[in-house]
# Entry
Amino acid sequence: MDYVQEPVLSVRNLNKQYGGGCLNCRGAKADRLIKNFCPVCGTVYACRDVSFQVYAGEILGVVGESGSGKSTLMECLYFDQEVDGGEALISSYKNGEANLFAESSQQKRYIRNHMMGKVYQNAALSLKMDFSALGNIAEKLIAAGSRHVGRMETRGRELLEHVNIPSYRMKERPKNFSGGMQQRVQIAKALSNNPPLLLLDEVTTGLDLSVQASVLDLIKTIQRELGISVVIVSHDLSVIKMLADRTFVMLDGQMIEHGLTDQILEDPQHPFTQQLVQSLL
Amino acid sequence: MRMKYQFAFFDEGSKREIRRATLKAVAIPGYQVPFASREMPIARGWGTGGLQLTLSLVGKDDRLKVIDQGSDESVNAVNIKELIGKTTGIAITEETGEATLIQSRHRIPEIPLHAGQILVLQVPLPEPLRYFEPSEYETKKLHAEQEYSGAWLMLFEQIMKYGHMSTGADHPVLVHKRYVMAPSPIPRFDNSKLNDSEALILLGAGREKKIYAVPPHTEVVSLDFEDFPFVVEPFQGVSCRLCGARGVYMDEVHDEETGETLYQCNDTSYCLQRLNEKRG
# Structure
């Protein structure tokens, strides 16, 4: 066995701010901010020097209160947002030597289409609501270079079956589906090109408990079967507890604590994490 | 009232602006160049894009042909010819081979175009990704990033729904291995005529304010799938009831009295030319 593992994704010093910053807040003057907000110029520092690694086949959880920069982090990783600094390397692209954030928009599109999948909290962000469920899966496959209808349809059916969409509804538009079904179609779409990395942003928020359970179960099963790496963002600690191997905690755009999920939940060090874990119990 | 119009209706500044956009379009095959579409004496959506191209290009030595869905004599074609004829005084012809400038609505003539000719096509919707993405801001980005899964996805959806690609006209094409382009609503039958054309093909959308082009000898490939290849409308075993032509684009004529279905050439000048040749 190979004991020295290369990370699938490594992120170094990712910075993202909304606003230009001013003399009051620029540079290492974090103490002058109110949480992550500059009272002088109104700049929000959404992610500050976030660094982490994701290894093959692991699930990394990201927790934090709302507004702590979790979703911004995910949007930056999927190139939905431009970063203001830092780098991300992905092992399957240019031997993990190229900073993804510095690539051209065409290359970013390529990386997104071939090496990543993302599931959003709001299904409308990734699904084309007026195209059939099968078509939605085909979209990702076409983007990844497939030009064979038969193979795409087979793959789409296989995936939709996997996420429990009945075969008689596969040609229907996701617009007609319930929230839970839409979410499952989204997961199928994100998985369609066998991405080495899957990003999940609050996938179960807003779903009822039984659907939540089945979606989580599905993610766990698929992740085990395909051995893909997953980054999952949630403010729901029970989701993290169930899925994540390792977890890091975000507060005001910074990573304040990281470690094995059990360790974080059983023996939190940072006062905020302690508070978070307390409120779970 | 007798008004003295400028040669070719437009002021010289307008002609120059449209020609500049046209030059850019020729330099980037398949790319939609925005231009300041002028107010015209016909309504937008009735061929103003094509008309503006024609008027900006026409010179005193040109011979003009205008076709509307294959016909030289439809109201639209006749009126456009009259406008251009009256404001320029150039010769109008119906013979494809003779014309130097051909403005056409939704057909490419049956007689192969030759070098030196310019074909101007009228375009209602220049954006091949519009159905997939309603925002112009987004489609511009998709073109820039060469992200054309939307165009294939539309065809995929048709196959899912109907079992085959159901584009009746305006089947999207890939130009010069770079831009996906709407070829204007020409029948699929005419798509192959865009490929490696001898003549310069210009496309103008007046309402949408876009000009784009397929320069001579440019590779134009119709989008398709490995297991669903691009096919044109089949006219097997069918011949024109007037001139007997085969292998051309046909109109279907239904005779209500006899219940018969007859076919005739859609390109009227081609048909007429063949009939004249037969007479000798």
Observations:
- The two ends of chain B are 46 Å apart (CA to CA).
- Chain B has a mean pLDDT of 94.
- Residues 12-222 of chain B form a domain with the Rossmann fold fold (CATH 3.40.50.11310).
- The longest strand of chain B covers residues 63-68.
